[in-house]
Structures are given as structure tokens and as C-alpha cells.
Amino acid sequence: MFHSVMNIISLWTLPVILIIILTMGLIKRVPIYEVFTDGAKEGFKVSVNIIPYLVAIIVAISMLRASGIIEFIGGICAPLFLKFNIPVDVTPIMIVRSLSGSAALGIFSDIAHSLGAENYATTLSAVMVGSSETTFYVLAVYFGAVGISKLRYAVLVGILADIIGIIAAITVCNAMFG
Fold this sequence. Notes:
Blueprint: H1 2-27, H2 32-67, H3 69-83, H4 91-96, H5 101-115, H6 120-130, H7 135-146, H8 152-176
Helix pairs in contact: 2-7, 5-6, 6-8
């Protein structure tokens, strides 16, 4: 019963939202098509403005993976990780998640495929992906879109939040699955 209700809700949520928006636009006599195309033009301008930031993130991730620095860091941190029941396999997730969500999901997919769904490293990776944000991507997209160039405090707070998310993921997974 619950699943069928949730299925109906999930199927009808977006169409209902669109109908409400269109109805409100008609009631308020908003030129809906013109406003939509103006928004699309603005979205295109924003996407052109953030391309340099996205290219920088892609290059940084490629350099980290190709240089072997992620594996090097994992090797150095292995004794500490073992002490806290952290598989070395999750090191790439810890490093890359702040940079790119799609890269982190790709790494997570590799971990899940190679180790299996029931492995602790897979579970911990999944929780880490869900408990942290793509800090540098968010800063690049949102701050780049509005032209903010002074990112010092936002970067510090974002990295601190990512570290707290990783620590919370490790703590919760150790308590529930470790």
C-alpha cells in the first residue's frame, strides 16, 4: 500500500508543480513563454561564464588521478585508517568528493563493482558520498555565475563541512556496520 501511494505521488509531483506554475502565470497575466525564453537565455550566459571554473576542476581531478597522488596518500594514511576501521579503498572518495560529484560517483561505482555491494568499503563510500558536498564545484558554479572572486571563507567553511561529513560517515558506519 505504502509503495503504491509513494509511486503515485512521485509520478504526479512534477506535472502538478508545472500545472500550478502555469496556472499562476495565467492568473497573474505573466507572458509565460517570453519569461521562459528569457530565463533560458540567462541560463546559457551563466553556463558560458562558469566553463573556465569547470575546466579547472576537471583538470585538477585528472591530474590527481593520473599522478598517483591519491594512492600515495592512501598508502601514507593506511596505518591511521586501520586504527579507525577505514578501508584504504575509500581514500579516493575522501579526496575527490569535494571537487566533483560525478567523479566521486564514478569512483564509488568502481569500488562497488570491484568489492561488491555487501563490502564495508562500499557501504562507507556510499555514506561518504551522501554526507558531503561538492564544495569546489558549488563554489565554481554559484560564485562564478554571480562573479564573486573572494572565496577564502567559503572555501574554509566548505572544506570544514566536508571533513565533518566524512568523520560523521565513518562514525556512523563504524557504529552500524563495523
